[in-house]
Design brief:
The complex is a heterodimer of chains A (281) and B (442). Chain A contains 13 helices and two strands; from the N terminus they run ααααααααααααββα. Chain A has helices at 2-38, 42-45, 60-67, 71-102, 108-120, 123-136, 143-168, 171-179, 184-195, 197-213, 216-221, 230-234, 245-274; strands at residues 238-239, 242-243. A two-stranded antiparallel ribbon of chain A has the order 1-2. In chain A, β1 and β2 (242-243) form a beta hairpin. Chain B is an alpha/beta fold and 442 residues long. Chain B folds into two domains: 40-157 and 316-384, Periplasmic binding protein-like II (D-Maltodextrin-Binding Protein, domain 2, 3-Layer(aba) Sandwich); 160-312 and 404-441, Periplasmic binding protein-like II (D-Maltodextrin-Binding Protein, domain 2), CATH 3.40.190. Chain B has 18 helices and eleven strands. Chain B has helices at residues 8-35, 50-66, 84-93, 105-113, 121-128, 164-169, 178-188, 205-217, 235-250, 265-271, 283-291, 293-297, 329-340, 342-351, 378-384, 396-403, 406-415, 421-441, and strands spanning 40-44, 74-78, 100-104, 143-144, 147-148, 151-157, 160-163, 195-197, 275-279, 299-302, 315-322. In chain B, the strands form three sheets. Chain B has a five-stranded mixed sheet with strand order 2-1-3-11-6. Chain B has a four-stranded mixed sheet with strand order 8-9-7-10. In chain B, strands 4-5 form a two-stranded antiparallel ribbon. Classes of the chains: A mainly alpha (281), B alpha/beta (442). The interface between A and B is large, with 35 and 47 residues.
Chain lengths: 281, 442
């Protein structure tokens, strides 16, 4: 019955669109609220009625953010740390995953399982011993220290995810490359990695957002403005029991943009990477 | 099935490698303490006024220079309130805490009890010898087992922030008693836009402060001065709780939403002009100073109204603490002394615009404290104010009662679960007794 099938399809499409709309609103409203609040004067933020649209829009919060706080330094530090963490995670993740997927050596399985366990240990258990080590190695309050700490949870995840993907790359392609004179590293770079772009995009995006959004380590390991990241910088807008919502929302909105940009750049591969193995072709 | 033989040598090698791998980091840490280069580390919490931050920083570098330190040997860090406890815990475990940090009174007691703080009784005694001395009320916060483990930095009074414009509009004076207070609130409020009293009643610390302050006026208290005998379940406390219940249920001068407030709830209520009166430290006043001068002009700071036992005001105390683990205690003590020299100290206190009340009595002679009527009652509050643990001291047990919200749970039993006040107080009394008994055993 073609008509019924078409009607059912239309109904499902409407339901699907409706659900998507709800999810869209659910996702965008916090962003809108951040922007709107950052454009309101304090009097309006603390007004009796919550206003959806700022009555008297002002950039005062942004002026304060850029002129009276070291917000740009926070952005610089977050960028250095997130980009470095991402780059190093990709390099170590690729090398580690390739070794675990392709090479045969004693303890391989143990290491692979160990990666998962490492990833499962919550940061709240690790921050004190990690800080102790950082202090001992004079790495506390440095970009390098924070990057190293973040690698502790990004590298295991990247390695684990890439390991699964590398296994799905046909071995014959690599063998052909080796026969043609490629080294192992050459085969990895020239054959495996170009075929693994979706997985690389996922791990890059994951590493970047993890490093960009992390709070606990950044709070404990960093003291100086020269190293402080955005997440911990945001807390400086809470003085005792008073919240300075305008600049805080402005800073939160601006800090949400870089992960969004990274996502948009890698979007095509990220979606593909996230659905890897969902269906067999 | 294959059989694997492990030799004794292999076993020993594996054991040695495992021991090295697991304990290596800790050996590194052990070495770090003694090896720390000469450096002065100061942790400051953010102030409301940039000027106060700037002056504090200048004084740190000024002292460092006089002590022969280079700029690179000074670490001045502004640490946010959020996550301060985790940060300090990690620093202490790593053997690398700051030399000096600004601490809240319960932190002083907690870290003193754990043996982390330097005895600074001599510094406090020196301050007491200044002309007119210092407010004794500030000393209870820093004393532990008869010695001072912190130097009181500022008295933090909890005045009633009152909308004097509304009082004038209704031709009313600031109420002298709680009965008058209720009447005044009823007259000036116009719910839901404006409620009389923004009393904090959520499961947070401010609720303990607000509730206990009112109970004192009715003769109630939490613990006796011996810091052992819990007296929560008393007729006086029951009378006070009944007054709160009446304000909430009968007179409806407290908004219903207060039971879900966090510590900033009363701030927001006042800042948004939805409450005519709130009891809070002058952080609200400091916020208005910066962000809403119009409302600041309409605001008065008053002692709490009196109950049958008179008026008792809550104060808490901020202090400087110096940590023992650092290898250069003289630098830490020197820095605190430098801050607390009355001339240096007065500059910082005044730069906070009334947020901090000085611990030196004679500093109140300065024209600054006579410049605004809002400051009029500060001397009296600093002179007679009580810590939230009154009649006891702010001991670690009192800190636990505050942080585990035992008293807010009691008031919510009455307001949310409809328990009779004596029943709620009985349960609360038992819990506090448990806390004090456990802490006495430690």
């Amino acid at each position: 019955m073609p008509r019924t099938t078409s009607g059912t399809r239309r109904l499902f499409r409407w339901i699907g669109n409706g659900l998507l709309l709800v999810m869209l609103v659910w996702t965008l409203v916090p962003f809108y609220w951040m922007i709107a609040t950052s454009l309101k004067a304090d009097r309006e933020i603390y007004g009796f009625e919550a206003t959806l649209v700022p009555h008297h829009p002002t950039l005062a919060a942004y002026v304060r953010l850029f002129q009276q706080t070291p917000f740009l330094k926070y952005v610089r530090n977050s960028t250095i740390i997130a980009v470095s963490t991402t780059a190093v995670s990709l390099v170590f993740g690729c090398l580690g995953a390739y070794a675990l997927a392709r090479l045969r050596f004693r303890g391989r399985r143990l290491i692979a399982r160990g990666l998962v366990f490492t990833y499962l240990v919550p940061p709240s258990l690790l921050f004190i011993p990690l800080f102790a080590m950082m202090s001992a190695l004079s790495l506390a309050d440095t970009h390098q220290g924070l990057i190293l700490a973040y690698l502790g949870f990004t590298v295991p995840f990247c390695t684990w995810l890439l390991m699964g993907y590398f296994r799905s790359v046909p071995l014959e392609l690599e063998e052909a490359a080796l026969v043609d004179g490629c080294t192992r590293l050459g085969a990895l770079i020239r054959v495996v990695l170009p075929m693994s772009l979706p997985a690389l995009a996922v791990v890059a995006f994951f590493s970047f957002t993890q490093a960009w959004n992390e709070f606990l380590y950044a709070n404990v390991f960093v003291n100086s403005v020269e190293v402080r990241t955005i997440t911990t910088g945001l807390t400086m807008f809470i003085i005792e029991d008073v919240f300075f919502w305008g600049p805080m929302m402005g800073a939160a909105f601006l800090s949400a943009l870089p992960p969004l940009v990274v996502y948009l750049i890698f979007q095509r591969w990220v979606v593909k990477g996230l659905t890897l193995g969902a269906v067999k072709g | 099935m294959t059989k694997t033989n492990v030799t004794r040598r292999q076993m020993l090698k594996t054991a040695a490698a495992a021991s090295l791998a697991t304990t290596g980091p800790w050996w590194l840490v052990r070495g770090s303490h003694g090896a720390r280069a000469k450096k002065l580390v100061f942790w400051q919490l953010p102030n409301f006024t940039p000027l106060a931050d700037q002056l504090q920083k200048e004084q740190v570098y000024e002292f460092a220079k006089s002590a022969g330190l280079k700029e690179s040997e000074v670490e001045y860090a502004t640490v946010a309130n959020e996550g301060f406890a985790e940060k300090l815990a990690a620093a202490l475990e790593a053997g690398n805490p700051p030399d000096v940090a600004r601490l809240y009174e319960s932190n002083v007691q907690f870290y003193a009890a754990q043996g982390h703080l330097l005895d600074v009784t001599d510094l406090v005694d020196k301050m007491r010898r200044e002309p007119k001395g210092i407010f004794d009320s500030s000393l209870t916060a820093v004393r532990y087992n008869g010695r001072a483990y912190g130097v009181p930095l500022a008295v933090n009074p909890w005045p009633v922030h009152a909308r004097i414009d509304l009082l004038e509009q209704h031709k009313l004076d600031y109420p002298k008693t709680w009965d008058e207070f209720i009447e005044t609130c009823r007259k000036i409020q116009s719910p839901p836009r404006l409620f009389g009293f923004g009393m904090c009643l959520g499961l947070v610390e401010d609720t303990t402060d607000n509730v206990m302050n009112l109970l004192w006026c009715y003769g109630g208290k939490m613990v006796e001065a011996d810091n052992k005998t819990v007296v929560m379940n008393s007729p006086e406390n029951a009378a006070g709780v009944k007054v709160i219940e009446a304000m909430f249920r009968t007179h409806k001068i407290i908004p219903q939403g207060t039971i879900g407030w966090d510590n900033s709830g009363n701030n927001k209520a006042y800042q948004s002009r939805q409450a005519a009166f709130v009891m809070n430290p002058t952080s609200i006043y400091a916020y208005l100073n910066q962000s809403d001068p119009d409302l600041q002009k309409r605001t008065g700071l008053f002692p709490v109204p009196a109950g049958p036992k008179g008026t008792v005001n809550l104060i808490d105390t901020w202090a400087f603490g110096a940590f023992k683990q650092n290898p250069y205690p003289e630098l830490a003590r020197g820095l605190i002394s430098h801050f607390m020299q009355p001339a240096n100290y007065d500059k910082i206190i005044q730069s906070t615009g009334g947020r901090w009340v000085p611990v030196y009595k004679r500093l109140f002679d300065s024209p600054f404290w006579k410049s605004k009527p809002e400051f009029k009652h500060f001397v009296g509050m600093a002179e007679t104010g009580m810590p939230v643990s009154y009649a006891g001291s702010p001991t670690p047990a009192a800190g636990e009662v505050l942080n585990t919200h035992v008293i807010p749970k009691m008031i919510q039993r009455v307001l949310v679960d409809n328990w009779e006040p004596p029943r709620a107080l009985e349960e609360c009394h038992r819990r506090i007794e448990e806390v004090y008994a456990r802490n006495l055993k430690l």
